[in-house]
Each structure stands twice: as C-alpha cells, then as structure tokens.
Amino acid sequence: MNVRNVERIEGDYSALPPGYAESDEDRWVPEHGKSVYRSSFERDRARLLHSSSLRRLGAKTQVVSPDVDDFSRTRLTHTLEVAQVGRELGRQLGCDPDVVDGACLSHDLGHPPFGHNGEKVLNELAAGIGGFEGNAQTLRILTRLETKRFHADGRSAGLNLTRASIDAAVKYPWQAHQAPLRQDGARSPKFGAYEDDLGVFDWMREGIEGLRTPMEGQVMDAADDIAYSVHDVEDGIVSGRFQLGFLDNDLQRARVIQTTQEWYLPQTSEGRLDEAIARLSAADSWVRESDGSRRSLAALKNMTSDLIGRFCGDIYDATRRAHGGQPLVRHEADLVVPTETLEEIQVMKGIAANYIMASREQMPVYTRQKDVLTDLHSLLMDTKDRFLDPQFQADYRAADDDAARHRAVIDQIASLTDGAALEWYATLVHGKPVVNRLFA
After folding, report:
1. 139-163 pLDDT, tens per residue?
2. pLDDT of residue 255
C-alpha cells in the first residue's frame, strides 16, 4: 500500500493523514487540482452538508413523525447527532474525522418517507426489480441521484466523493444474494448495492477482499446505534409515552426484555438482558421519573450525555486494548464492542421499541402509511413519467427496459419527505387539498 504517513502542516492540506493511501482520495470521475485550504475528505463532507438529500431528512420520520411535536428528533437531527458522536470516537481512534463525519451524514440518506415502515413497503413494491433497501439507496444517491459531476458520456457520477468516503458510507458492502447468513439460517435482508449500481460499487471496493466494512464505517455504525438507543428513549420520555421507572415493575421489565430479544438480540438470554437493565438503572444519572420541567429535562440531557460517554468509552478502551495505539483506519483493523456494552445499547433500543414502535396505537398509522405509498406507486406506474420530477422524468425516459423505468418511479417515491408523500397522495390520488397531518 502506497501510504504517505506524514503530518499535515499548517496551510498544506495535500498530505494525507497517517494510514491513508493515495488511492483512498481517488474519485470516480477524476477532478483536476486540489484545494490548498481543504483536504479531499473535507471537501466530501462539505458536499454532503450542502446536498438536497440531507436537507430532506429534516422532514422524514425518525421514530415519531416530524409533525407530531416540536421536540422529537427527525432523520436530520438524528444524523447530525450521529455525526458528532462518530466524529469524536473516530478521531480518538486515528480515523480521519471528516471521513467518519461524512459516513455519518450519509448513513440515512436512502431512507424513504415514513421511516422503516416506508422502507418495508417500498421493498415489497420493488420486489420484481431487486427490492428496496435504504442502505443500497444511499449508495445510489451518493453516486447517481444527487448530482455534482458527470462522466464524459453524460452519465451522472453523483457527488463524486472519494473512494474512502463512499466505502465508509456503505454499511453493508454486498449485494442481496451475498448477504451473510443469520443464526436462523436465512440471509440478512440488509444489503448495500443494487444490480445496476455495481459499476461504482466495484470501483469503490477495488483491492478489498471479502465483505468487511472499513473502520470508519464501523465507527459510523456504532455511533448510529449509540445515538439511536439513547435519543429515542429521551424522545419517548419527553413525549409522555413512558417513564424509565416503568422498568422497576417486573411485568414491564419482562416486556422490554422480550421486545429486545425479538427485535435485536434473539440469542441473548433473559438473564443477561435483565443484568444489562440493572447496570444501566444503577447509574446515578438514570432518570426514573420526568415531569417535563426544566430541571427534569436537564437531568434527561445529563443522562443521555453520560450514556453516550459510557458506551463510547467502553468501545474505545476495548478497541485500543485489541489493536494498540497506532491509527486505526480503513481496512487495517476492526472496532471492538464489548458484549456487555452491546447488550446495554440494544436494551436501550428495546425500551424505545417496546413503548413506541411496537405499541398497538401505532398500527393504524403504519397501515395508513402503507396505503399512501402503495396507492401513490400505482398511480405513478400507471401515468408513466407524467408526474415525476424533472430529474426522475429524465431517468424514466432514458431507461432501456421496464425494470429501469420502475426503478425511476421507486427513486422518485423514496426521495419524498413525509409531508410531500402525503401531499402527492392527496392531490394526485384523490384530487383533494393538501393535508398536513396523517389523520387530519
């Protein structure tokens, strides 16, 4: 590996940080000249920050729909928090912080309206053309749909990020048929590339053997889990859906453990998950009851800060013990997440899942969301390119076959925010005035 292990000097951003190779800076479409003020990876991060796909996350569901209240996180605020957590953890381990930051900013770009429920619906609708997967859609956005550069033949090269930045953003570096087997023998439903995006995928993975994710991508994934686990619990408490004091009740605690097993850790025993809850609830910052006052909100914020610091610290210490003090970058090392830390993170996610995502009161919302996307898909398929946005209309008209035309329709729907999907549904499907809320 041709690596320039030199420190950057003030005013010179052409030197790569320790551990990175010149090929890591390559772009799918070569760009002449380098900035003397910004590194290639800093330029990647800037392109992501200025992208319309990132802006749209502000109106896409995280856990609670964006129009429910003014406090709960959207996909955008979640993404910014993941970037902060990931950037700091990655920097401490020796990763280029802008590569990690860029991966974190990218990680949810492919999510469609209505969160994971929307992802499930679109996967069913696109079953005949390779399905829909939010992570594969992220690669498609970065390298095709969010355009900054073009190939000489006129094809879009997307944002034309560096190889290292794209690789870090692809959480699942395989196609659907290559997905690892789960413990039940079935393939994981997660994958990172559609068939017609293999050109850039193969370019990105040049010289990399196997299906491993780079260190920067592993840090992004850990930061996502940490932020998700902690902040969704905070949102649920503030929105009045539950209190952590509920877990002092044996029945409530058992339900959370069951949800954690069903959703996240099917092979982990009830006893181990109960011990994880006991460790978490023993912390001085654990907030059993919150009344919405400024003092209780401050206590919640202190709890989230302590939990983030606890999880990141445990991961950092374990990774350093395994690999020593050298910079841990790209495909030279793996992040180490201690078993107890993983169980604590997943229990936190299980709390939110039990009281928010899996609650019976959400089921009518999910059904309604499915109807919106299904009916909108039917209309757009029937009307061909008539109602598509100009960029997707161009993709539809340039398509060589029905599958490519269908993919253009799926891309269009996936790009919509929650509000835009409802607006299109109301105006195009039913010819009614725009509604702002799902049950208005």
Report:
1. 999 999 999 999 999 999 999 999 9
2. 96
- The token pair at 278 is 């006991």
77-116 burial, b if ≥16 CB within 10 A, otherwise e?
bbbbbbbebbbbbbebbbbbbbbbbbbbbbbbbbbbbbbe
74: which strand partners? 61
Q: What is the CA radius of gyration of the chain?
A: 22
What is the tally of helices (H) and strands (E) in the chain? 17, 0
Number of domains in the chain: 1
CB 136 within 8 A of CB 193: yes
Residue 311 lies in a domain: yes
Residue 130's Cα: distance from chain center in Å?
20
145 in helix, strand or coil? helix
The string of pLDDT tens digits covering residues 14-62 is 677 788 999 999 999 998 866 667 899 999 999 999 999 999 998 876 5
- Residue 85: name the closest of 283, 313, 287 by CA: 313
The 3-state DSSP class for residue 74 equals strand
Looking up tokens 């599958």 gives: 403
Q: Tell whether 261 is covered by a domain.
A: yes
How sure is the predictor about 434, in pLDDT bands with cuts at 50, 70 and 90?
Answer: very low
Q: What is the mean pLDDT of the chain?
A: 89
Q: Is residue 328 part of a domain?
A: yes
User: 78: which residues sit within 8 A by CB, 6+ positions away?
Assistant: 62, 108, 227, 228, 231
Q: Please tell me the pTM assigned to this model.
A: 0.89
Residue 277 lies in domain: 215-360
* Within-domain flag for 320: yes
Q: What is the pLDDT, as a whole number, of residue 440? A: 39
